[in-house]
Amino acid sequence: MRYFVWLFLIILVVFRFFITRPTYPNGQKIRITDKVSTEPIRYPTTQRIILAGLKIYLPTFPEIYYGDKIVVEGRVDGNKLIDAELISLSESRGILFKVRKKTINVFQQSLPEPHASLVAGVTLGSKSSLPARFWESLKLSGTAHVVVASGMNVTLVASFLMGILVLFLPRRQAVLAALVGIWTYSLISGFDAPIVRAAIMGSLVFSAQALGKLSSAARALILSALAMLIIWPHWLTDLGFILSFVATASLMLFERKVAHLVRFVPGIFREGFSTSLAAQIGVAPILFVT
Predict the structure, then answer these.
(1) What is the pTM of this model?
(2) What's the rounded Cα separation, in Å, for the pair 246 and 213?
(3) Segment 233-245 mean pLDDT
(4) Annotated domain spans of the chain
């Protein structure tokens, strides 16, 4: 029976992928009204957003933020909207979006650049305020992943909340409160694919523990991938989505073997080294071809 469930989920992903693909013919002028659901990427003279599966490049000002509602017009050219013009921009009124923006402002007022942007990137996944030269240097050195919120952030949030909540609440109530905290952080930090993946996996694992069930990391990984693709099929072509799942799968498959091979490394460094190396086994080929 469970194999039919897996098959049904896979078929549903394929169905959703094809029915939600943009069907705009090249050259057609369209108007898109949508909410910015991922952190815009800023360049020296432009900022890039993604709406309706289309990459859109707009002038640097006015600045667009995660959660804003915008209206843009332009002509379709493959997966891009060219000659794009910003028609209107409405700042998000959501509490979580305001908390995110105010937190980033606190970092900017308290620290010099690029330190403020670095802290905002590590904690909230904000790349919009990073100086262009600093961002390019990070990409060239292969350390750009340091300034983006990742699944590790979700793990830290979940561990911290559970460690505190179990002191005051029964375990099931503590798990429920921790799940609320995980998803709240996911929304604040930009709701990028790696964050959502970790939030879903964490939710599945915590829920299984609360119900007294054994949790399978591999099953949780596959379920989270299918759930994400059913909700938003275009993640299938998102590099962050691909790298997040490949890195996690690579850890599951190779971490123990790598740890055994690098047992000559001093203990204080061994775990971090073996974990990084195991993840690179999967993601290095993808990074090489992209």
Answers:
(1) 0.79
(2) 26
(3) 82
(4) 29-90, 95-147, 151-289
